[in-house]
Records
---
Amino acid sequence: MQLKNPQCGPGLRAGLIAASCALLSPATRAQALPEPEAGNQVDAGLLYYQEDKGRVRSVDAIVKLSRDFGDERALSITAAVDSLSGGSPIGAIASRSVQTFVSPSARSWNPGGGGDDDDEGRPYQVAPGNQPLVQDFHDLRGALDVNWSQPLGVGNKLAAGAHFSYEYDFLSASVNSALSRDFFSKNTTVGLGVSAEFDQIKAVGGTPVPGSDYSQLAKTRGNETKQVYGAQLGLTQVLARNWITQLNLSVDKGSGYLNDPYKILSRVDASGALLGYQFESRPDNHARRSVYLGNKVAFGRSVLDVSLRLGNDDWGIDSQTVEARYRFPLGARTYLEPQLRWYRQGAADFYRLYLTGSDPSDSHMSADPRLGAFTAKTVGLKLGVGLSGGSEIGVRLSGYEQTPKVRSSTLAGLEGLDLNPRLRAAMLQVDWRFAY
Amino acid sequence: MTKTLLKAAVALAMAALAGCSSLGIKPWERDILARPEMALDAAPVDNAFDEHIYFSREAAGGGKGFGGGGCGCN
């Protein structure tokens, strides 16, 4: 059936293509609509991301090409490039004295020793009171996604996708597929999807022996691997003429080398005096579960998008995420969209801000801030401007703040130091959508 | 607490599915849902950037679909 509403020309077609080429969620079709005419659409975006205190800076670009062949057959190809630089926390805590580290790629403490270029192996110092960072890292990532969807019999839809990404020290390839079925006059869609991801970690300078003494730089040559298998059960339901809801239950299980090869922990004595450092050591299995509930509700020409996600894993991390976006029109073609997000996570069972003399050296341990307990807030505002022919340009400015739960210590030697600094980041995004 | 919430959500989902047959709208009432901004993935660029940023800075991830991932940043 063709929708003949004259007000829903290129804009509607663009939206329909976007919907049909959405992420391979098993059930996103209850909304689906009269078949669009065949056509192409491009979604392109550029993101500038900058953290405070000289930490990570990145420039990300993405281009998504969508082609609708009609009869609910759709192809999308997404290419992305990320360029990262700056400093990333190494995991060690601040100290009252100067601390000396060596670039992560080093195999020895001698300047230039063992590395592939002159900088590798060269020690560097961190001033008292400062958070130790990996110094001046640079990384470039390229990624490619291909997704295809088509009907499979009456009322069923099959989707399949593949993903590949490349970094100098990390390769990832994954495939996924989902089968979904409509019920109750397409008001309900139920889907089941599965995915498999295969990664190769090629730590620059070799892979550290987990839990080993940092000063020894004990590293093994050769690549490490990990695999992640996932499944998702999805339900999409039209609740009212202006309200659609989506519920996803997801599980995934990772195994293999799950460490960050560049992360270490500080070890201190009972007074807080620094004893040394150890490489982190994570379990080699990781199972995660999550429930996601999303809603889109129209109020006149405004749209509220609100979602909730609950998750936990067998590392002891539980998380809650609440996100809301409210799009309201400013004239016929322009809109403003305030965006809010709140996130909280608990700490992994083996997370330690630092090790003390009584902590065993052969158990699992990590001081990676991403495994600690924290809350995070994002506040953003997007301005969208519709152009002729269904094109649209958007500008989004956002701020992100991550506040760790534990930031200090009562040990005498560490008192007054910010051991786990707050993270603040600013993001500026420009995006462009057009059909051709 | 999260486990209890997860169980409650699953129970709610099952109850919701059982009640789905009485929900919904007629085909000719889909005018509002047909608007581009009502698509579940109406802003794929926003979502892709957000997924990537949060994936690389937080322990939890995903939930919406199978997109993204495959990054050495986490």
Note: Residues 10-435 of chain A form a domain with the Porin fold (CATH 2.40.160.40).
---
Amino acid sequence: MAFEKILTRYQDIPNYTGTMDAYIARGGYQALPQALRELQPADLIEVVKRSGLRGRGGAGFPCGVKWGFIPKDSAKAKYLVCNCDESEPGTFKDRMLIEEDPHQLIEGIVISSFAIGCHLAFIYCRGEFVDGARVLERALQEAYGRDFLGKNILGSGFDLDVYVHRGAGAYICGEETGLLESLEGKRGQPRMKPPFPAISGLYRSPTVVNNVETLCNIPHIVRRGAEWYASIGPPKSSGSRLFSVSGHVERPGNYELPMSITLRELIFEHAGGMANGRRLKAVIPGGSSAPVLTEQHLDVAMDFESLAAAGSMGGSGGVIVMDDTVCMVRVGEIVSRFYHHESCGQCTQCREGTAWLHKVLRRIEHGQGRKEDLDLLLDMCDNMKGKTICVLSDAAAMPIESYLKYFREEFELHVRERACPFEGKGAF
Amino acid sequence: MPTVKIDGVEVTVPANTNILEAAKRLGIEVPHYCYHPGLSVVGQCRMCQVEVEKMPKLAIACNTPVADGMVVATRSAKVEKARRAVLEFYLLNHPLDCPICDKGGECPLQDYTLKYGPGESRSVEEKVQRVKHKVLGPHIVFDAERCILCTRCVRFCQEIPKTGELGVFSRGDRSEINLFPRKVLDNAYSGNVIDLCPVGALTSQEYRFRSRPWDLVRHTDSVCPLCSNGCNVVLDVRHRQRGEELLRIRPRENAEVNQWWMCDEGRFTFTYLSDPARLRVPAWREGDRPAERGYDDLLLRLARSIRRVLETHGAEAVGCIASSRLTNEELFLIRRFFREILGTPHLDFRVRPVQFQASDASEDGFLRRTDKTANSRGARDLGVLPGPGGLDVAGMLAAASAGRLKALFVFEEDLVQGFPDQPVRESLGRLDLLVASSMFPTETTALAHVVLPALGFAEKEGSFTNFQGRIQRIHRALTPHVASRSLPEVLRDVAVDLGRDVGGIDPEQVWAAIGDAPGPYRGTAWKDVGPEGLLPEQSREPRAESRDA
């Protein structure tokens, strides 16, 4: 059965504008009245559970289960927060979804809010997404005008207001509790868990935080059924996924595919193969935090389980492809510089470790490495992993470990030759 | 109540106790920096990680409540490696100059590094340079390079005085504690951030580089004398070879009085104790100017003068105003001397309106109180009040003006200053005998015929009763000046010269008499006044005066 695009179906419609009329013309806003009229909130949660939809932000947590954690008997207000702080290097799918088809997200937000009993939802939008935020604002106005938002939506008695909140430029605010702190107007740094947001989230009230892509799936699941959705892709990673392919490929871009797709198919069939016919050296399959994979992993499927089994992770779906001109030490320097810059600084291992990793990698890349630095890096990574409030520390350590695992001789060469062997030759 | 096994030893603790506190009960140290029992838990320093059976990752002891049957290891190989790693990370950018750091010798970073840390540095990178000796407020100086960002100071300002002057700025390894724009760290409790700081980053203008911790050989438990709250304190005194001096006052934990805190006024007001202007020797005024005399001769003359007044005008012509800065033991002896030995009903301590019953109130909803003397409650409880037909302070001044009062004893109060609107000078001038004790020369001592030097709270043993009715002991931290006698000694000696006896004057002996006498302290014993004080049964109600009221 040929795969039919779900979230990016609009791409096949000529001159699609993403306006309310265009969205309705392509079948939009049909799921919403269906959900409001035919389904109880509990039914909706059940449908999403049965669909097997997993969070598309990085961790892949089952969406319906997350919704089910919201206490039914709480007198507190409940909130839905859409995480649109897409900042994982190599990932650019949410940006496309909000800029090109914002109503798909809004419809998803309204249905999801109805499911969890929320009357005030927020879209936390990455600060750099100036255009995206503007598109969303305009789309929200349209939705209010057509009775899809506000009081008594479509005469159902259900009320919902949605606000767009722009971040101020911090990667850590994509971490859901860092996001909530920032949304509350505080310094964006993750909270200790438990309690999880479902129990104590925004303003200490029950809160669901869902990624843009996750929420965009909701109207389709409502309209076409949980069974239809669950039938797409492997059993534990159902539905389609947007893969942001970047780097040394012929056709970089977002590709919506079932997660049964292999790396090889993704790179060589969909993204047009390696640019300039060069040889593939390394692939980061799930955003810069994901451990690197190599040629030997090309036949691994892109679902959460298979990638984990291969020693990496599905993460944010950002696939960074690198050819043989790339210096992995330089990659390490760049990636560690990012985490050094973005660590919020509250936990000791992360605050100090991200900086130390970066300094040592920079030293090696610039010909000042010492033999003992390689084991030092590995021990540092071990000391950083699994010991902090959030996983930024792990995200900084895991890739470096993997570069050393697959490309140790390249690091040794830097130390031995007291210089980068790719200097002046490489693409990076 | 859950029972948890820590390092092989079982302990039963109340539900919701964290592992760190449970271990503390067993005497097991779980090293930590950001955790403080009086502040919110942030779990940032990651120093208190322990291994809990069935948990895949190490758990932070500060934020993991114990559960029944939980098995915890605080010294496993995994824990030791994690601790070593945290300390290594801290030291990457921390100066390794403990010998010149003000905290050296009493620094948890230094101590934990010695106990749990790596012996050598694996870093060859340059340290981050930061601002040094930045003045944050009237008392507090900040050395950012030493800061390990535990944020205790930030949380303290947010949560305790609720003034929120401090914040963390920038992120990652550029993070820095600083003042918010246009803020100064000048809240009334700012000094507590020094005690909270686990490194030498926050120091006081007053103590900074004045002493090494190991030269502060005496740490004497005491009680702050500057208001009726009676915050528990420790007095740090430099040893005699370097010149005995009180250099630092720190709060001492007492859950019922001040928790872990004290105000800046109490913390930084102590240099007066070593002020050269203090009165050290007794004096008898001859004509216009006082002449210094030895105690024996002076007290004999004083006894003769008292006897003369008693014989000529009767006990009704004698009055006494005793400060509520005095200890319970001193006040008890004063009452015994004046009411019982001399037989006068004119006795009072209430010089200020706030000292009258139920007038004392919280100043700020926290620790500070409006009665700026330590022991009004004790003075009232012990009956330092007018007897039947007796005069209060105003009455005694009026009687002096009218010539009815001939002799007045004023212990540690300056009446001239205390009643600026009244002709106190004239009233006192009409007395045949004015005896004044004081730590410093005052307008009252200037008028007195007999001037007696007084001892400071750090120079004597005894007790104060705080506004709640809690009896709390003070201990001698400083040796009194050789030429000065204590007030109990003076009362005893004058009584002897009058052919009478005040009884034993050691605080313990005095307390035995207090425990026998009628009043709220009847039945209490000196040994029962422990480090957290003693709230006698009779003083427990009503709670109307409690801090939260």
Note: Chain B touches chain A through 37 residues (CB under 8 Å).
---
Amino acid sequence: MRDLKAYRHGYWRSLDHRAQSHDEEADAWREFPEGAKQAPPVPADSLSRRKFVGVMGASAALAGSVATTGCIRKPKEEILPFAERPEDLIPGKPLYYASAFAECGSVAGVLVESQDGRPTKIEGNPRHSGSQGGTSTFAQAAVLTLYDPDRTRAPLQGDQVAQWADVKTAVGEVIEAHVAKKGQGLALVLPQVLSPTQRYQLQQLRERMPEAKVYVDDATMPGNVIAAAELVGGEGARNFHSLTDTRVVFSADSDFLGGETDSTRLNREWAATRKVVQTTDEMSRLYVIEPHLSSTGVMADHRLRVKSSLVGDVVIALARSLDGQGVTWPAAAAGVIAQLPQVTLDEGTTKFVNALAKDLTKEENKRKTAVLIGERQPMWVHALGTLINAGLGNNGTSQRWIFDREAIRLTPVSELAKASDVETVLCLGTNPAYDTPAVLGLADKLAGLQTIHFGLYRDETAAIAKWHIPVSHWLETWGDLQALDGTVAIVQPLIAPLHDTWSITEWLGFVASGSMLDGYSVVKYGYSERLGGAFSEKMWRRWVHDGVVSGIPREPVLPKLDWTKLAEAVAKGRRAVEGTEIDFRLCPKVADGRLGNNAWMQELPHPITKITWDNAAYMSAATAKQFGVSDGDLVSITVNGRSIKIAAFVAPGQAEDAITVSLGYGHDWGSVGKDVGVNVYEVLPASDDGDIPWFAGGQVAAAGGTHQLVSTQDYGRLKPPTLMGVEYPERPIVLEATRDEWAKDPSFVEKVNLMEPARLKHLWEPPEMKGKQQWGMVIDLNTCSGCNACVVACQAENNIPVVGKKQVANGREMHWMRIDRYFRGDEDNPTAVVQPMSCQHCEAAPCETVCPVAATTHSPEGLNDMAYNRCIGTRYCSNNCPYKVRRYNFFNYNLDLRPGEFWTDDADGARLRQLQKNPDVTIRFRGVMEKCTYCVQRINQAKIEAHVAGKDKVADNDIMTACDQACPSGSIVFGDISDPESKVSIARNSSRNYQVLRDLNVRPRTSYLARIRNPNPELV
Amino acid sequence: MGASLIFAVWYWFSPSYTDVGYRPEQPVPYSHKLHAGDMGMDCRYCHNTVERSAHASIPPTATCMNCHEQVKTESLRLRKVRESYKTGEPIPWVRVHQLPDFAYFNHSAHLAAGVGCASCHGRVDKMVVVEMKQPLSMGWCLDCHRDPEPNLRPLDQVTNMNWDPAEEVYDPKQDPERKRQVNPPLHCSGCHR
């Protein structure tokens, strides 16, 4: 047996795990996954086991009597063909339509799959620059919101259901009353306006009602980035980043891989600089400073824990250090660096900054660097960041500027709280009573005004509004959206509004022009009017088909950059934080709360902490010790006199004395989102000088009491149990090396196996696989940032049910794909690796040999098949699975909707949720095992298409599994491993390719490419 | 007693007993015998998606009206068809050949392989009211998947109801029209996903 010490690296998943690995004796064999809670005892009045058996006996007898009376034929089923079938529609064949949606400050172009008229799945649009074929978790989850039974189905006046005709008249009268006063007393609250059509409508509104106020309420809008761009480039200036061909990237608190603006595009661009095949290949280097371990921090080559309030100081130090390296600053920034304040940093940080500055200024990295400032940072840090990028020569490469002539400056919603002359507030797709700092008191203010709320749900604002008017989801809407880089996409509806609603664009048009036009006319005629003779029907059809507006000549106008106001901004904006630093973040799952009622997002484990169905106060172990709390203990957080109680969670990688809390939880409505987590807007400070504050000083104390937090971080640990006194060594699951180690030993992945391959023997012959094609998958750990897009894509594609917090606590989550996250090193300052894990499709699958009914068997093409209707639910297979990827339906999750545990539901609601299901995948019943199938429905579809075309084999690239297709970084490759030319075969030939637990000789078809780190030799 | 119970289940609970001969009443008394048999219309005139999709698709009302706007325009038996065409409401046809939802049958693959319509659906051209002729059970499917050749025919004879595999001499391996030889799946995920 080989000595693994050198390669084991001592990975751990949680602090419990870390503690145990020092005390392996304690890690005895356990039935339930570690971290899973035992089910609470059954209350006396509910179904006892004895009663259950009695009921079952009675129903079996009943079933028998039904059978003997002859009712055993399948029920009568009707086929309802169209009276006139729409053009291009072939029943059973999905169609794809291009559309787009706004996510976190930018736009993602998408292709939406329509099954017989129902949108069921969202893919990226390769033609759209913001997507390039990948998607985010938010895009994947959108279909579930569309069919959410909680969406309001009829307009409400107060609590009363109103008629649509009355609504239009009433709103019309309110608007006309304000038109008579030139709009005085009217306020509109909008989310960030990215639609050219809506901007045009706002211009119309300004002409019709010059006195009307338009406020923006959107926590996902990168307000400080925009403010900094305008400080430097003047009104209408915007900047964004591109990471194509970069060699050194520095992220100052920027989670650009995990949900900040344009993360889908940046993931793809950054991953392209990290895809190494040969040991000599170029590879970019990533430096990260941040207070809270993010997806970007996981991918860092060098990461420093820095409190948010000190990030700006580090950036100042970097600017000074670069100055020392002889960077030529732009003429428009003459003398600015000298005016920056002196900052004092500790030794380690100074070393980090100097090494980074040297790296950024190396000749070979010239114009191939990028400095990204996090959206949470104040405006002055962004402005300084633009200067550093300019000094490094990155303008035009990694830092792009555009001048947005039509940019409309909207007033921040915090001004609405101060406004005294407002009578009527129209909240168009916003929820200001919830997602604004509670200290503003907007909820009370809106309750006292004539508030008309237009939104999907009867949310916090709707509850206090005079009118609540349901609107269309973006999948039911015509519209357009302009991305940061200027790409305009047409939003087209996939389905007529399910609830008879109008869209925000239609309502805005009604307010702005006085007449209600349908969205199609509004968008299309807007273009034809603005373009005049250049517009044609053919052109329009091409835009709608491609999802991207093209053929309009644009003259890019660059703003004139001037940094002279920077020093003043630094002096004004830079301030210390008193007390413990409270960091506010958008949640990578529910954003600012808009996805709070989306069960897929609630059940999704947090990318780093793996917490589901909650938010928590993340703190370092040392900070937790200081406050005397551990996981699940309630702490009170007080900011400016307002306080909340929230459960603590020790998060490795967190900066000392800084507590991170996520916005977006604690809604008081919704059958999914109600009372999930804590509403952090309660303590979010309000801006007093235009800067949006994302961190503040606060007082923290243990509050007594606990709250159950459910984290999946210890589930499915691939550690062999201690059996009959024999202890098996923990084997390496994730492999990594530095570039130098890899260059020295290109086959380092081979060294971790306990046995020589020649010594491995099968207990019995593996099944013969004579198929013409052999499927396999390769996952590149060097580019996977663990963003979760694949997990939600898999859930949408494969009809995977949601089980609720209680069941996840019992270790019964159903995700076919999980993303394991491993730490290494110090408990407070570890490095981390993420690894997507799903069925490995072993050639000699241990699950198959123990199934007593042959419900799981092997296909000739190497798939580990699962025949649900044969499964009797012994769960032997799951027990025998070394990768712990099989999932069991303990309940009939698709039908048994138990109040409180899943969601209450009416018959219409159940029908609505059915519409989302993929008709190509069986809905599983209670008592059945399930797991990743490599998206066998997609494989079969491609095979049948090839066969009909007379081909024996499916071409490479014709099959993409759902995870492969969703992955924004292109880390997952699927294909035919028997074809040496296929992408997957090429990836498997890499010297980084390894199979997890190869010693077990189960020969998994999924393999991984080991992570390579690229540290700076000066910092090692 | 035990043996007779086993026999009873084996015989009376099997699709050969419960399903073969299933002949539900349809909302419109459409006669396949008249259209496909006497008048010789090709199956694909109405079931036109059969070569491209998993489903053979019941035709939209508009397909009926292609002819019936000219012929039998006043027929009482076509009242529901005209009504559907006018209102856009579908005609609620009753499904005859019904597989369980966990079995994913694909028409286009079978047509491309040269399996005739009549092999599974029987002589529809002789049925006034369509009925099930085969059990469509898993065992019955697998019989053919294990040995498909007796049920294969030249690709241009797929919809020909009169082409009888028992009488014709046909060797698919020698057919130059075939671009690939059939290789029907026998594993679970071939049909269940």
Note: Chain B touches chain A through 50 residues (CB under 8 Å).
---
Amino acid sequence: MTTRPELLAAQATAWAWLGRPGVWWTGEERVAIVAKTRHAATCALCRARKQAAIPAAVLGTHDTISTLPAPAIEAIHRIRTDSGRLGETWYRRLIGPDLTEGHYVELVAIVAITVAIDSFREGIGLAALDLPLPMPGLPTRTPPPGTKPGLAWMPVLFPQDWAPPTPDLYRTLPGPPERGRGHIHHALSLGPEAMIAWWDMFEPMYLRSAEMRDFTREFRAISHAQIEMLAARTAALNQCIY
Amino acid sequence: MNGDPTSGIPAGGILSNFAEAILANDDSLAQSRSAVVAALGEAAMIDAAAVVAGFNGITRIADATGIPLEPAKAEETESWRATLGIDAFIDLKS
């Protein structure tokens, strides 16, 4: 099977990033989040909640052997198994001393990268990757300056509020900015490194912004129309309204 | 579109089935994968899997951060979101 080298390289880079210390989690904790993301797919409580009209009405504990804090376990399991029914009330209950908004955003990126890479490999018939190697080091615990509340559940860093030394999350330099046109580009901006890791992996799987709007040629072995149909179908199956 | 998002898309039904099989990750996946390869070729199957997998991740980012649809996009898609029942998902959030 011949896979686009750019696709595999982007996924390998993202997978290695998962094992490195982040802004809020250590490398070991981040690898534990990857493992929990995979494990959540078979959690009995998650299966029961998925079937329930009101997920929170089903009491119990998640199947887990992890040392991650309880709010993180709940976040991983719900994002992995029932993301379409997450609401702000659920989010506000989770956030606290054991799971700050910074921890949460980095966790969301880790879960999403794990789901995307695992789904891709399952899709084309390849075995799942081994867990990333956890790298030593401490989280920097430095949130970006200039974030503002109001757009998402957590504060976001808008392109006009970005400045060095915060990593160039919108690819503003040398210009014009390559990211930041859609709200979805802002979703992980409280964690610039996490946002960069996600989009650097995602764009080779889908399309870059400029490619999305360029209908003069096709950039993949399937057409723009086929790509957008697949994207819409996947979003609908996941009950995503974005 | 007549309410069918695959209508008018070459091999739309086959690709839609492939998306469903990837998300379900069940016994139908191998057959769906083969159907895409037979209809469109291996490179198309790989690119289709990449789109589905990428959106299987990004939908989680959108839903787990509460990021809203852009106002212009919400207006443009109002009628077909209602037709497809997508707005009903909002009522299920808790």
Note: The mean pLDDT of chain A is 94.
